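Subgroup meeting minutes
Present: P.N., E.W., G.H.
Scribe: E.W.

1. P.N. recapped why we're keeping a running log of single-chain structure predictions: easier to compare across weeks, and new members can see raw inputs and outputs side by side.
2. G.H. added today's entry (308 aa).
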Amino acid sequence: MRIFSYPAVIKDLLMSFVHEDFVKDLEFDSLKRLNPDFFPASGKSRHADVIYEVTSHGQTSYIYLFIEFQSTVDRFMSLRMARYVLEFYDELRRCGKQKLLNPCFAILLYSGELIWNAPEKLSDLLLESSIPKEFLPEFRYYKIAINEISKRDLLRLRNAVSAVFYIENSNPSEINKNYDELVYILREVIEKTCGVEIIQQIMNRIFEIYQLPQNSKTITSIEDIMEVKNMLETKTKIWEKEILEKGIKKGKEEGKAEGFEKGIKKGIENTAINMIKIGETDSKIALCTGLSVEQIVELRTRIQKENR
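Output recorded in log:
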């Protein structure tokens, strides 16, 4: 996300979402993003790494932000990130003459839908052994899972990062219904230094996620943000229609293999599940599918268990 190329946004991220004591000692005026060409690419995530240099009590440290967009949970993420950090250190060694390396704080920013349950410590990936722990490799990343942050907390924070997280944590239907909440957050951001430029990047993210016409609107004020809602409403109607049609189509396909009646029943269930996932009410789902409220509640419970 280009939004994290702004030092002001990194400051918001650290102060609002990294709950560690060292953050209060960072000299945020010294934040400086390193040139991406300076450090090795991280494989398939080469565009997702952001590294900042920052000082604290006169000592330089690094904030290594790794943004994970994939929908699946990588159990070996701590191994991957340890490798990226070590490659970064090796590059620093080659470019400098210092005898000691500056500390590096690694952050995983996860924007997937599944619960992130991968080990955060490298040592948790190792089998039990009689080898003393001090001889085994150790590394830990700091996890920020967007889907674990409540919208109430995001509304309370009212900064650029909470706006981005609000968008990432919502589907088109939810954004459309609660657009005033997003504007409430952005109103605070737009008044800050460089606020308009950052707001534009945030709105570009909405255009990207929901496939709205790119660069169709230049954001300069709260009024401009409100006007984007019209495009979002249209996109929401198309998206909801596609979700319903997808469920019906899947049911018909399964009907050919399992029998027409069973397939139609499965299709109705899939439609209900898709409507639950886009945030529709039980009454609307019942009206569209013919299922009882009790059946819909059972489906909601099943989805929650599957996502744990």
